[in-house]
Amino acid sequence: xxxxxxxxxxxxxxxxxxxxxxxxxxxxxxxxxxxxxxxxxxxxxxxxxxxxxxxxxxxxxxxxxxxxxxxxxxxxxxxxxxxxxxxxxxxxxxxxxxxxxxxxxxxxxxxxxxxxxxxxxxxxxxxxxxxxxxxxxxxxxxxxxxxxxxxxxxxxxxxxxxxxxxxxxxxxxxxxxxxxxxxxxxxxxxxxxxxxxxxxxxxxxxxxxxxxxxxxxxxxxxxxxxxxxxxxxxxxxxxxx
Length: 241
Fold this sequence. Notes:
about 240 residues, alpha+beta, Arc Repressor Mutant, subunit A, Alpha-Beta Plaits, 3 domains, 4-stranded antiparallel sheet, 8 helices, about 20% strand
């Protein structure tokens, strides 16, 4: 069920606004800097950095920008210190939303996130208000139109150490334990699979359907505006769309 929402999020982001696309490089640079500070500047010895660089390249971030962010975080230049903060709340239609941010000004970011919830008919809650509806997993999505043999993909995923495998409309979702995420992802890529999207974070336990057209419109607008915000790195939700 979780992959259904993620797959629709991918399609929504492909048609993202210019503002959202313009924020991609800023978000990628932040992720690179945090990964370097946590695990060092060598992607061969830092799985998180390797993953972030791959995603940055997939988003057409130039190598010069990537290298500049690595050097900045490694001490070749002065850089901001970012902290990760998770905000939780309910969007229109009662959809549970978790917002992962990287910020150098928590007051600004908290105000921005609260405003986005309020403006679109949602409600930002306290820590723990919706996190019980999610579980930490590694999630890897593969386009099933590119790999039609479901059984082969499933066997490759399970042999790589995946915890679960499911097929949806247009995608396969591979779920892993958090500690196995990078190992499974690397193994699948080594077998030649192109990863459509991957993430290590909250996966919804159950999903929420939204039938009211106005709530759907407001929810889409809220998620789009969150994508445009430089401080917001990832938005996780349990919308069954």
